[in-house]
Amino acid sequence: MGAHLVFADESGFLLTPTVAKTWAPVGKTPMLRHLDRRDRISAISGISVSPRLRRLNLYFQLHCKNIQQQEARCFLRHLLRHLRGHVFLFWDGGRPHTGRLVKELSDRVSRLHLVRFPGYAPELNPDEGIWKLAKGQLANGCPTDRSDLMSSLMSVLQSIRKNRRNLRACITHSGLPSFLP
After folding, report:
1. Phi/psi of residue 90, each to 5°?
2. pTM for this structure?
3. Are strands 87-91 and 40-49 parallel, antiparallel or unpaired?
4. What is the pLDDT of residue 15?
5. Which of 17, 28, 57, 86 is the most exposed place for a label (fewest CB within 10 A)?
6. What is the per-residue pLDDT for 178?
């Protein structure tokens, strides 16, 4: 039996709307009205590739605070509960990934193998595509509060998870060599 490959990353989502191109009637400038609030949702996710059938899946967790080593460890435990066999997790060398709690879990769980991407190489991580898709779908939205943002983000990530073409595209458009059939 082979090992699961998982490509993981984090991102933040603010209540302040991300403005993207849009349309409006001629002569009417589109307006997004919002309060200048700095509340945010932090998200961690991983695209998994199963060993035999090369099935793709997306795992994610949302937090109301910045992702730190406790949240990274919680995400790793979540993956280990859902994926059987060995798990090779590829991620950057960010502070949450190199902390004592993550290292202790990795040392204790022999089927978990943490692999660092080279420094300053986000183009290699397929999970970066997940954040691009999510932020694109949330663009021009104007959540009223953190709960509204959480609900919208959860819905967007679930729709990305269901669309295997999106997951495949994130992998094939990364800078990784082709490994999917």
Report:
1. -105, 125
2. 0.88
3. unpaired
4. 79
5. 28
6. 79
Residue 172, pLDDT score: 92
- Contacts of residue 162, defined as CB under 8 A and 6 or more positions apart, other chains included, come to none
> How far is CA 84 from each of CA 59, 79, 81, 98, rounded to the nearest angstrom?
14, 9, 8, 24
Concatenated DSSP letters for 27-76? T------------EEEEEEEEEE-TTT--EEEEEEEESS---HHHHHHHH
Q: Are strands 4-14 and 87-91 parallel, antiparallel or unpaired?
A: parallel
User: Which of 38, 47, 99 lies closest to 68 in space, CA to CA?
Assistant: 99
In the chain, the domains with their CATH numbers are: 4-17+35-172 (3.30.420.10)
User: Which residue ranges in the chain fall short of pLDDT 70?
Assistant: 1, 17-20, 22, 32-38, 181
Q: Which CA distances in Å does 22 have to 30, 133, 149?
A: 8, 17, 20
SS3 91: strand
Round to whole Å and give the CA distance between 39 and 14.
Answer: 6
Sign of the four-CA dihedral 117, 123, 124, 125? positive
